Amino acid sequence: MTAPVLHQLLNYSPIQEYIYGGKGVGSQGDGTAQFIVKNKECQDKIIDIINRDFPQMQCLKLTIYRRE
């Protein structure tokens, strides 16, 4: 599958300054997008942008803390 909406999101210029990278995961890559963001503020900003510009999508936060 080509997953055009997923690729549109992954390459969406308004989010690029907030992420280190992203990828599609799931059914042929058209199920879920995952992003690695720079910090919590960037996480909140990218969620705001996706909610505004891709209303058909849902965002879920996942934070993985480093072990000390």
Rg over CA atoms, rounded to whole Å, is 12 Å
Strand order of the largest sheet: 1-2
Major β-sheet profile: 2 strands, antiparallel
Mean pLDDT: 90
Euclidean distance between termini CA atoms? 41 Å
Low-confidence stretches: none
By DSSP (H or I, 4+ residues per run), the number of helices equals 2
Oligomer: single chain
Keywords: Kinase, Transferase
Protein name: GHMP kinase
Organism: Sphaerospermopsis reniformis
GO molecular function: kinase activity
What does this structure look like?
The protein has two helices and two strands; from the N terminus they run H-E-E-H. Helix content is 31%, strand content 19%. The protein is α+β, with helices and mostly antiparallel strands. The protein has one domain. The radius of gyration is 12 Å and the shape is globular. It has a two-stranded antiparallel ribbon. It has helices at 4-10, 40-53; strands spanning 19-25, 32-37.
Write the topology of this structure:
Elements: H1 4-10, E1 19-25, E2 32-37, H2 40-53
In short:
The chain is of the alpha+beta class and 68 residues long. It contains two helices and two strands; from the N terminus they run αββα.
Key structural traits:
68 residues; alpha+beta; two-stranded antiparallel ribbon; 2 helices; 31% helix; globular
